[in-house]
Amino acid sequence: MRYSPLLTDLYELTMLAGYLEEGMAGKPAVFDLFYRTNPFEGGYAVFAGLEPALEFLEQVRFAPEELEYLRGLGIFRPRFIEFLREFRFRGRITAPAEGTLVFANEPLLTVEGTLAEAQFVETALLTIINFQTLIATKAARVCHAADGAEVIEFGLRRAQGPDGGLSASRAACVGGVRGTSNVLAGMAYGLPVRGTHAHSWVQAFPDELTAFRAYADAFPDSTILLVDTYDTLKSGLPNTITVARELREQGHELRGIRIDSGDLAYLSREARAMLDEAGFNGVRIVASNELDEQVIESVRAEGGRVDIYGVGTKLATGSGPGGGALGGVYKLVEIAGQPKLKVTSDIAKATLPGRKRLLRALNAEGGFIQDVICLDTDDVRGGDTVHDPTNPLQHKTLPENARFTDLRRVVMEAGRRTDAAEPLADMAERCKRELALLPTGCLRFINPHRYKVSVSGQLNSLRNRLIDSLVGKGK
After folding, report:
1. Which of 24, 49, 417, 470 is deepest in the core (most CB within 10 A)?
2. 124 and 165 in one domain?
3. Same domain, 167 and 289
4. β-bridge mates for residue 373, sequence order
5. Cβ–Cβ < 8 Å for 232, 259
6. Spatial strand order in the sheet of 385-387
7. Can you tell me the distance from the alpha carbon of 68 to that of 52, in angstroms, rounded to the nearest whole number?
8. pLDDT tens per residue, range 76-95
9. Which domain holds residue 212?
10. 148/289 same-domain check
11. Is 219 exposed, middle or buried (0-12, 13-18, 19+ CB in 10 A)?
């Protein structure tokens, strides 16, 4: 998919034009993309959107009609329009792999290039990474609640427009969802596509049994019947069992039923009992209707017998407490070799200067202890004192026996990807594997354990020196 370079905020272009006029456009610069609060009031986020972001960076070009539009705005000089004609991103990107668990205040993407290159791509990178990370995180939470039951993404009709629907389907699979109702996403990303029929199918026929028979006749080896159009237990299930027997007599088996309303825990229990008593133990039960992680958790806690959850609106839109949007930001951390930081009266919003690494401390079993943000010249070891990124006065000592792994690597050099695109299934497996290594308290939906993220002693000292030199100077 081509994202137009005009998918940006106007101020990116006005700053770019200003840098050109001031002779600054070619200065080397480094920016970090990060967020300050874990989404959904949760204990983690799932990094996603890297591949679409790299695709944008490789393809960014101004087409003639786009340059003509900018010229017609009447605010840019001809020299700037000509500059844009040759604009390309030729920088470096450092990032984690998609499906990696990440946390507040950690540098996710680091963008290095000329000031013009690195500044201009801010908005596009934020809109891609913020949304897909939000949805991948929601998907991981939903899949955790499902506790091994299959989850399918059903959200296209409620998504934030066509592109939002496509991006949501992709990101949901990074977080562990196994399929989608979105046929375009199935083609674009190689995802399994799933679906049944709507209530309107049943209503279009004289009665429910006739509708079920017609659907089974059309799809004898993939029939899943929606059983709640009239009455799930008194009508839908008896008619389903009738059709299931007829299919079996013809050498086929009913695949499943879907319940889209009512008390899902109770109805799924009763449906399971009716199907099993009739000899259809293999028929799977699909549940849908405004599901999210809390609803799924309650269905399971009440003994529900759901095999597959179809999750739509709240997954594709990333809604819920602490959801709706990921507040990712993009900040300058170095220019022309000089570390930079944003100084603010709220220390929690002060940025971390300089080129950095993101390390994860692991215990002997590979479990996650905590993350450490350090300068790229640091040598972090067990026993070191590290500091809270939002409160430099708080510090702790790293375990002596901790071992460290670098969570990020260079994924783009000179404007070209360093590796081929990774399959979505591999990203989903990484997410699943890392969730199992996270302290269990971090997985709670209510009052989760706060996973520790610290800054190294050298980085903390650099930040404090820069703050001392800049406070009161308005720089």
Report:
1. 49
2. no
3. yes
4. 358, 455
5. yes
6. 395-397, 385-387, 453-455, 368-375, 356-362, 403-406
7. 26
8. 999 999 999 999 999 999 99
9. 141-316
10. yes
11. middle
